[in-house]
Amino acid sequence: MGVIKNQDIYLVMHRSLSMVDKEITEHGKEVGYILYKMLVSQNKYFLQELIDYTTIGVLHDIGLYKSPDQETIHREETKNVWKHSIYGFLFLKYFSPLGNKAEIVLYHHLDYSKYQLINSAHIEVAEYLAFADKLDTFMRSSNEDRDAEFFAKQSGVRFSERAKQVFLNAEKKYQIFENIRTGAYEEELAALLRKKLTSEEQKRNFLEMLIYTIDFRSEHTVVHSLATTTFAVEIAKLMHLPAADIYNIYYGALLHDIGKLVTPVEILESPRRLNEDEMRIMQEHVVNSEKILRGTIDDTVLEIAIRHHEKLDGSGYHRGLKGEDLTIPQRIVAVADIISALYGKRSYKDSFDIERIKEILMADSDAGKLCPEVVGYAVRNMKWLVRNFEKKKEKTIGNYILIKEQYEEIYNKFKQFELEEEGQNEVPIKY
Protein backbone atom coordinates (compact mmCIF):
# COMPACT_ATOMS: atom_id res chain seq x y z
CA MET A 1 0.00 0.00 0.00
CA GLY A 2 1.10 3.58 -0.63
CA VAL A 3 -1.07 6.68 -0.68
CA ILE A 4 1.58 8.81 -2.38
CA LYS A 5 4.82 8.10 -4.21
CA ASN A 6 8.10 9.59 -3.03
CA GLN A 7 8.42 11.69 -6.16
CA ASP A 8 4.97 13.25 -5.67
CA ILE A 9 5.49 14.59 -2.14
CA TYR A 10 7.27 17.71 -3.37
CA LEU A 11 4.65 18.24 -6.07
CA VAL A 12 1.69 18.21 -3.69
CA MET A 13 3.55 20.49 -1.27
CA HIS A 14 4.35 22.93 -4.07
CA ARG A 15 0.80 22.94 -5.44
CA SER A 16 -0.84 23.53 -2.09
CA LEU A 17 1.52 26.25 -0.84
CA SER A 18 1.55 28.04 -4.22
CA MET A 19 -2.22 28.33 -4.05
CA VAL A 20 -1.87 30.09 -0.69
CA ASP A 21 0.84 32.56 -1.75
CA LYS A 22 2.81 32.16 -4.96
CA GLU A 23 5.42 34.79 -4.09
CA ILE A 24 6.40 33.13 -0.82
CA THR A 25 6.56 29.76 -2.56
CA GLU A 26 8.72 31.02 -5.44
CA HIS A 27 11.10 32.72 -2.99
CA GLY A 28 11.36 29.47 -1.02
CA LYS A 29 12.18 27.46 -4.15
CA GLU A 30 14.92 29.86 -5.21
CA VAL A 31 16.46 29.97 -1.74
CA GLY A 32 16.29 26.18 -1.53
CA TYR A 33 18.05 25.89 -4.90
CA ILE A 34 20.81 28.37 -3.96
CA LEU A 35 21.36 26.51 -0.69
CA TYR A 36 21.46 23.17 -2.51
CA LYS A 37 24.13 24.33 -4.97
CA MET A 38 26.19 25.81 -2.14
CA LEU A 39 26.07 22.52 -0.25
CA VAL A 40 26.72 20.26 -3.23
CA SER A 41 29.71 22.39 -4.26
CA GLN A 42 31.47 21.32 -1.07
CA ASN A 43 31.23 17.64 -1.92
CA LYS A 44 30.81 16.52 1.69
CA TYR A 45 27.08 15.90 2.17
CA PHE A 46 25.24 12.64 1.61
CA LEU A 47 22.26 12.63 -0.76
CA GLN A 48 19.68 12.39 2.02
CA GLU A 49 21.33 15.30 3.85
CA LEU A 50 21.23 17.39 0.67
CA ILE A 51 17.55 16.58 0.22
CA ASP A 52 16.64 17.37 3.83
CA TYR A 53 18.59 20.63 3.94
CA THR A 54 17.20 21.70 0.57
CA THR A 55 13.67 20.97 1.80
CA ILE A 56 14.38 23.13 4.84
CA GLY A 57 15.51 25.85 2.45
CA VAL A 58 12.34 25.57 0.37
CA LEU A 59 10.20 25.76 3.54
CA HIS A 60 12.32 28.29 5.45
CA ASP A 61 9.61 30.97 5.26
CA ILE A 62 6.68 28.67 5.98
CA GLY A 63 5.89 30.90 8.96
CA LEU A 64 4.97 33.71 6.53
CA TYR A 65 1.87 31.78 5.46
CA LYS A 66 0.42 32.49 8.90
CA SER A 67 -0.07 36.16 8.00
CA PRO A 68 -2.00 36.21 4.70
CA ASP A 69 -1.96 39.99 4.21
CA GLN A 70 1.75 40.56 3.67
CA GLU A 71 2.57 43.55 1.48
CA THR A 72 5.66 42.00 -0.06
CA ILE A 73 8.30 39.40 0.66
CA HIS A 74 10.86 42.20 0.81
CA ARG A 75 9.01 44.01 3.61
CA GLU A 76 8.51 40.94 5.77
CA GLU A 77 12.00 39.63 5.10
CA THR A 78 13.62 42.91 6.15
CA LYS A 79 11.32 44.57 8.70
CA ASN A 80 9.52 41.89 10.73
CA VAL A 81 11.77 38.88 10.77
CA TRP A 82 11.31 37.12 14.10
CA LYS A 83 7.62 36.28 14.00
CA HIS A 84 7.78 34.07 10.91
CA SER A 85 11.23 32.68 11.73
CA ILE A 86 10.18 31.46 15.16
CA TYR A 87 6.76 30.21 14.12
CA GLY A 88 8.27 28.42 11.12
CA PHE A 89 10.84 26.75 13.37
CA LEU A 90 8.22 25.58 15.86
CA PHE A 91 5.89 24.40 13.12
CA LEU A 92 8.61 22.29 11.46
CA LYS A 93 9.83 21.04 14.84
CA TYR A 94 6.47 19.72 16.01
CA PHE A 95 4.51 19.07 12.82
CA SER A 96 7.02 17.83 10.24
CA PRO A 97 9.42 14.92 9.76
CA LEU A 98 12.29 17.45 9.65
CA GLY A 99 12.06 18.36 13.32
CA ASN A 100 15.69 17.57 14.16
CA LYS A 101 16.87 20.14 11.58
CA ALA A 102 14.17 22.77 12.18
CA GLU A 103 16.40 25.10 14.19
CA ILE A 104 18.14 26.07 10.93
CA VAL A 105 14.98 28.05 10.14
CA LEU A 106 15.05 29.72 13.55
CA TYR A 107 18.43 31.30 12.85
CA HIS A 108 18.06 32.38 9.23
CA HIS A 109 17.55 36.05 10.16
CA LEU A 110 19.99 36.20 13.07
CA ASP A 111 22.98 38.40 12.25
CA TYR A 112 26.19 36.43 11.81
CA SER A 113 27.85 38.73 14.37
CA LYS A 114 25.63 37.11 17.03
CA TYR A 115 26.37 33.51 16.06
CA GLN A 116 28.65 33.10 19.07
CA LEU A 117 25.46 32.99 21.13
CA ILE A 118 24.27 29.89 19.29
CA ASN A 119 24.99 26.28 20.14
CA SER A 120 23.77 24.35 17.10
CA ALA A 121 24.85 21.19 15.30
CA HIS A 122 23.63 22.79 12.06
CA ILE A 123 25.36 26.16 12.33
CA GLU A 124 27.20 25.84 9.00
CA VAL A 125 24.01 25.13 7.06
CA ALA A 126 22.29 27.95 8.97
CA GLU A 127 25.04 30.29 7.71
CA TYR A 128 24.46 29.19 4.14
CA LEU A 129 20.68 29.47 4.40
CA ALA A 130 20.98 32.98 5.85
CA PHE A 131 23.16 34.04 2.92
CA ALA A 132 20.94 32.39 0.31
CA ASP A 133 17.88 34.08 1.82
CA LYS A 134 19.48 37.53 1.87
CA LEU A 135 20.77 37.10 -1.67
CA ASP A 136 17.38 36.12 -3.11
CA THR A 137 15.59 38.84 -1.13
CA PHE A 138 18.11 41.37 -2.46
CA MET A 139 17.55 40.23 -6.04
CA ARG A 140 13.77 40.45 -5.60
CA SER A 141 13.85 43.97 -4.17
CA SER A 142 13.23 46.99 -6.38
CA ASN A 143 16.23 48.84 -7.80
CA GLU A 144 15.71 51.82 -5.49
CA ASP A 145 15.79 49.51 -2.44
CA ARG A 146 19.08 47.91 -3.41
CA ASP A 147 22.38 48.92 -1.85
CA ALA A 148 25.10 48.08 -4.35
CA GLU A 149 27.66 47.80 -1.55
CA PHE A 150 25.49 45.63 0.71
CA PHE A 151 27.42 42.37 0.25
CA ALA A 152 30.76 44.11 0.68
CA LYS A 153 29.78 46.08 3.78
CA GLN A 154 27.79 43.35 5.56
CA SER A 155 30.17 40.39 5.21
CA GLY A 156 31.04 39.22 8.71
CA VAL A 157 28.17 41.26 10.17
CA ARG A 158 24.85 40.22 8.61
CA PHE A 159 26.25 37.03 7.05
CA SER A 160 29.50 35.07 7.11
CA GLU A 161 32.39 35.60 4.72
CA ARG A 162 32.61 31.81 4.49
CA ALA A 163 29.04 31.60 3.15
CA LYS A 164 29.73 34.33 0.61
CA GLN A 165 32.83 32.55 -0.70
CA VAL A 166 31.02 29.20 -0.88
CA PHE A 167 28.29 30.86 -2.93
CA LEU A 168 30.77 32.57 -5.28
CA ASN A 169 32.50 29.24 -5.91
CA ALA A 170 29.16 27.52 -6.50
CA GLU A 171 28.01 30.30 -8.83
CA LYS A 172 31.19 29.99 -10.88
CA LYS A 173 30.74 26.23 -11.12
CA TYR A 174 26.96 25.94 -11.60
CA GLN A 175 25.73 29.30 -13.01
CA ILE A 176 23.09 29.63 -10.30
CA PHE A 177 21.86 33.07 -11.36
CA GLU A 178 21.43 32.00 -14.97
CA ASN A 179 19.50 28.86 -14.01
CA ILE A 180 17.15 30.92 -11.85
CA ARG A 181 16.75 33.54 -14.58
CA THR A 182 15.78 30.95 -17.20
CA GLY A 183 13.73 28.80 -14.83
CA ALA A 184 15.95 25.76 -15.49
CA TYR A 185 16.55 25.47 -11.77
CA GLU A 186 12.97 24.32 -11.15
CA GLU A 187 13.37 20.92 -12.80
CA GLU A 188 16.77 20.41 -11.17
CA LEU A 189 15.26 21.21 -7.77
CA ALA A 190 12.23 18.97 -8.36
CA ALA A 191 14.46 16.12 -9.58
CA LEU A 192 16.48 16.29 -6.36
CA LEU A 193 13.46 16.34 -4.08
CA ARG A 194 11.82 13.49 -5.99
CA LYS A 195 14.75 11.32 -4.88
CA LYS A 196 13.86 11.71 -1.23
CA LEU A 197 14.09 8.38 0.57
CA THR A 198 10.85 8.44 2.51
CA SER A 199 9.23 5.78 4.69
CA GLU A 200 5.47 5.37 4.90
CA GLU A 201 5.56 7.06 8.31
CA GLN A 202 7.49 10.04 6.91
CA LYS A 203 5.07 10.36 4.00
CA ARG A 204 2.19 10.41 6.46
CA ASN A 205 4.01 13.08 8.45
CA PHE A 206 4.47 15.26 5.36
CA LEU A 207 0.77 15.01 4.50
CA GLU A 208 -0.19 15.73 8.11
CA MET A 209 2.14 18.74 7.97
CA LEU A 210 0.18 20.12 5.02
CA ILE A 211 -3.06 19.80 6.99
CA TYR A 212 -1.50 21.59 9.95
CA THR A 213 -0.50 24.33 7.51
CA ILE A 214 -4.21 25.20 7.34
CA ASP A 215 -3.75 26.38 10.93
CA PHE A 216 -1.98 29.38 9.41
CA ARG A 217 -5.44 30.36 8.15
CA SER A 218 -7.85 28.67 10.59
CA GLU A 219 -7.15 26.66 13.73
CA HIS A 220 -10.79 25.54 13.72
CA THR A 221 -10.36 23.91 10.30
CA VAL A 222 -7.37 21.88 11.49
CA VAL A 223 -9.26 20.57 14.52
CA HIS A 224 -12.21 19.78 12.24
CA SER A 225 -9.98 17.78 9.86
CA LEU A 226 -8.47 15.82 12.73
CA ALA A 227 -11.93 15.15 14.20
CA THR A 228 -13.27 13.98 10.85
CA THR A 229 -10.31 11.63 10.48
CA THR A 230 -10.77 10.18 13.96
CA PHE A 231 -14.53 9.71 13.59
CA ALA A 232 -14.18 8.16 10.12
CA VAL A 233 -11.51 5.65 11.11
CA GLU A 234 -13.38 4.56 14.23
CA ILE A 235 -16.67 4.11 12.34
CA ALA A 236 -14.82 2.02 9.75
CA LYS A 237 -13.41 -0.17 12.51
CA LEU A 238 -16.85 -0.59 14.07
CA MET A 239 -18.11 -1.74 10.66
CA HIS A 240 -15.21 -4.23 10.44
CA LEU A 241 -13.94 -2.89 7.14
CA PRO A 242 -10.73 -4.40 5.71
CA ALA A 243 -7.42 -2.82 6.71
CA ALA A 244 -6.91 -1.48 3.18
CA ASP A 245 -10.21 0.42 3.35
CA ILE A 246 -9.38 1.86 6.77
CA TYR A 247 -5.99 2.99 5.43
CA ASN A 248 -7.66 4.78 2.53
CA ILE A 249 -10.31 6.28 4.79
CA TYR A 250 -7.64 7.69 7.09
CA TYR A 251 -5.90 9.57 4.28
CA GLY A 252 -9.10 10.56 2.49
CA ALA A 253 -10.48 12.07 5.70
CA LEU A 254 -7.16 13.69 6.60
CA LEU A 255 -6.95 15.43 3.21
CA HIS A 256 -10.65 16.14 2.68
CA ASP A 257 -10.39 19.87 3.43
CA ILE A 258 -6.91 20.63 2.09
CA GLY A 259 -8.53 22.93 -0.47
CA LYS A 260 -9.41 25.28 2.38
CA LEU A 261 -5.81 26.47 2.22
CA VAL A 262 -7.14 28.70 -0.58
CA THR A 263 -10.42 29.75 1.07
CA PRO A 264 -10.35 33.36 2.35
CA VAL A 265 -9.70 33.42 6.08
CA GLU A 266 -12.65 35.77 6.67
CA ILE A 267 -14.90 32.97 5.40
CA LEU A 268 -13.13 30.18 7.28
CA GLU A 269 -13.28 32.17 10.52
CA SER A 270 -16.60 33.95 9.94
CA PRO A 271 -18.20 34.98 13.27
CA ARG A 272 -21.64 34.23 11.81
CA ARG A 273 -23.31 31.80 9.45
CA LEU A 274 -22.26 32.26 5.84
CA ASN A 275 -24.56 33.96 3.36
CA GLU A 276 -25.33 32.49 -0.05
CA ASP A 277 -22.39 34.10 -1.88
CA GLU A 278 -19.95 33.18 0.88
CA MET A 279 -21.21 29.61 0.89
CA ARG A 280 -20.50 29.32 -2.84
CA ILE A 281 -16.92 30.41 -2.20
CA MET A 282 -16.62 27.96 0.69
CA GLN A 283 -17.87 25.12 -1.52
CA GLU A 284 -15.02 25.76 -3.93
CA HIS A 285 -12.69 24.09 -1.43
CA VAL A 286 -13.65 20.70 -2.87
CA VAL A 287 -12.57 21.77 -6.36
CA ASN A 288 -9.35 23.22 -4.95
CA SER A 289 -8.67 19.97 -3.08
CA GLU A 290 -8.94 18.11 -6.37
CA LYS A 291 -6.55 20.57 -8.06
CA ILE A 292 -3.98 20.01 -5.33
CA LEU A 293 -4.31 16.24 -5.07
CA ARG A 294 -5.17 15.01 -8.57
CA GLY A 295 -2.28 13.00 -10.02
CA THR A 296 -0.30 12.99 -6.78
CA ILE A 297 -2.16 10.65 -4.45
CA ASP A 298 -3.88 7.31 -4.94
CA ASP A 299 -7.15 7.72 -6.89
CA THR A 300 -9.17 5.82 -4.29
CA VAL A 301 -8.00 8.21 -1.57
CA LEU A 302 -8.60 11.20 -3.83
CA GLU A 303 -12.23 10.24 -4.46
CA ILE A 304 -12.85 9.70 -0.75
CA ALA A 305 -11.45 13.17 -0.06
CA ILE A 306 -13.40 15.08 -2.71
CA ARG A 307 -16.77 13.31 -2.34
CA HIS A 308 -17.41 14.12 1.32
CA HIS A 309 -20.16 16.61 0.45
CA GLU A 310 -22.00 14.31 -1.98
CA LYS A 311 -25.43 12.96 -0.90
CA LEU A 312 -27.17 9.70 -1.76
CA ASP A 313 -30.07 11.60 -3.36
CA GLY A 314 -27.80 13.67 -5.64
CA SER A 315 -28.31 16.93 -3.74
CA GLY A 316 -24.68 17.29 -2.68
CA TYR A 317 -21.69 18.95 -4.36
CA HIS A 318 -19.50 19.34 -6.33
CA ARG A 319 -20.57 16.67 -8.84
CA GLY A 320 -24.11 15.91 -7.67
CA LEU A 321 -23.38 12.16 -7.45
CA LYS A 322 -25.97 9.65 -6.20
CA GLY A 323 -25.90 6.61 -3.96
CA GLU A 324 -24.88 4.15 -6.66
CA ASP A 325 -21.75 6.25 -7.27
CA LEU A 326 -20.63 6.39 -3.64
CA THR A 327 -18.59 3.66 -1.95
CA ILE A 328 -18.86 2.74 1.73
CA PRO A 329 -15.56 4.52 2.57
CA GLN A 330 -16.83 7.67 0.83
CA ARG A 331 -20.13 7.44 2.72
CA ILE A 332 -18.28 7.01 6.02
CA VAL A 333 -16.21 10.17 5.54
CA ALA A 334 -19.35 12.10 4.58
CA VAL A 335 -20.98 11.10 7.87
CA ALA A 336 -17.80 11.73 9.87
CA ASP A 337 -17.52 15.22 8.36
CA ILE A 338 -21.02 16.08 9.55
CA ILE A 339 -20.40 14.71 13.05
CA SER A 340 -17.24 16.81 13.27
CA ALA A 341 -19.03 19.96 12.07
CA LEU A 342 -21.89 19.50 14.53
CA TYR A 343 -19.65 18.62 17.47
CA GLY A 344 -17.25 21.49 16.80
CA LYS A 345 -17.72 24.78 18.60
CA ARG A 346 -17.76 28.00 16.56
CA SER A 347 -18.10 31.66 17.49
CA TYR A 348 -21.71 31.63 16.27
CA LYS A 349 -22.75 28.27 17.76
CA ASP A 350 -22.03 25.97 20.66
CA SER A 351 -21.12 22.35 20.23
CA PHE A 352 -24.24 20.26 19.62
CA ASP A 353 -24.90 17.66 22.29
CA ILE A 354 -24.77 13.98 21.43
CA GLU A 355 -28.52 13.48 21.28
CA ARG A 356 -28.97 16.41 18.90
CA ILE A 357 -26.19 15.11 16.63
CA LYS A 358 -27.89 11.72 16.52
CA GLU A 359 -31.24 13.33 15.64
CA ILE A 360 -29.72 15.28 12.74
CA LEU A 361 -27.91 12.24 11.36
CA MET A 362 -31.03 10.09 11.53
CA ALA A 363 -33.13 12.81 9.88
CA ASP A 364 -30.66 13.03 6.97
CA SER A 365 -30.61 9.25 6.73
CA ASP A 366 -34.42 9.07 6.66
CA ALA A 367 -34.44 11.79 3.97
CA GLY A 368 -32.21 9.67 1.75
CA LYS A 369 -29.15 11.90 2.03
CA LEU A 370 -26.83 9.83 4.25
CA CYS A 371 -26.11 6.10 4.26
CA PRO A 372 -28.45 4.38 6.79
CA GLU A 373 -25.90 1.66 7.55
CA VAL A 374 -23.11 4.11 8.35
CA VAL A 375 -25.44 6.37 10.32
CA GLY A 376 -26.68 3.37 12.29
CA TYR A 377 -23.17 2.46 13.45
CA ALA A 378 -22.40 6.09 14.26
CA VAL A 379 -25.60 6.70 16.23
CA ARG A 380 -25.31 3.51 18.26
CA ASN A 381 -21.73 4.34 19.23
CA MET A 382 -21.83 8.14 19.39
CA LYS A 383 -20.81 8.47 23.04
CA TRP A 384 -17.78 6.28 22.48
CA LEU A 385 -16.83 8.11 19.27
CA VAL A 386 -16.89 11.49 21.01
CA ARG A 387 -15.04 10.24 24.08
CA ASN A 388 -12.34 8.66 21.93
CA PHE A 389 -11.91 11.87 19.91
CA GLU A 390 -11.56 13.98 23.05
CA LYS A 391 -8.68 11.78 24.21
CA LYS A 392 -6.87 12.10 20.88
CA LYS A 393 -7.54 15.83 20.65
CA GLU A 394 -5.57 16.50 23.82
CA LYS A 395 -2.27 15.69 22.11
CA THR A 396 -2.90 18.07 19.21
CA ILE A 397 -4.17 20.89 21.40
CA GLY A 398 -1.23 20.25 23.71
CA ASN A 399 1.17 20.86 20.83
CA TYR A 400 -0.59 24.13 19.97
CA ILE A 401 -0.28 25.31 23.58
CA LEU A 402 3.38 24.28 23.65
CA ILE A 403 4.06 26.19 20.43
CA LYS A 404 2.42 29.35 21.78
CA GLU A 405 4.39 29.15 25.03
CA GLN A 406 7.71 28.55 23.29
CA TYR A 407 6.97 31.23 20.71
CA GLU A 408 6.73 33.91 23.40
CA GLU A 409 9.88 32.70 25.13
CA ILE A 410 11.98 32.62 21.96
CA TYR A 411 10.51 35.86 20.59
CA ASN A 412 11.49 37.77 23.72
CA LYS A 413 15.01 36.36 23.56
CA PHE A 414 15.54 37.27 19.92
CA LYS A 415 14.07 40.75 20.32
CA GLN A 416 16.55 41.23 23.14
CA PHE A 417 19.36 40.49 20.69
CA GLU A 418 18.21 43.43 18.59
CA LEU A 419 18.27 45.79 21.57
CA GLU A 420 21.53 44.73 23.19
CA GLU A 421 25.00 45.68 22.13
CA GLU A 422 26.92 42.80 20.60
CA GLY A 423 28.69 40.68 23.22
CA GLN A 424 26.56 41.67 26.23
CA ASN A 425 24.76 38.35 26.32
CA GLU A 426 27.40 35.71 26.83
CA VAL A 427 25.23 32.67 27.45
CA PRO A 428 24.94 30.43 24.37
CA ILE A 429 21.40 29.35 23.58
CA LYS A 430 19.95 26.27 21.93
CA TYR A 431 16.31 25.32 21.30
Automatic annotation (TrEMBL):
Name of this chain's protein: HDIG domain-containing protein
PANTHER family cross-referenced by the UniProt entry: CYCLIC DI-GMP PHOSPHODIESTERASE PA4108, CYCLIC DI-GMP PHOSPHODIESTERASE PA4108-RELATED
Limits of the HD-GYP domain: 199-394
SUPFAM superfamilies: HD-domain/PDEase-like
A Pfam family hit: HD
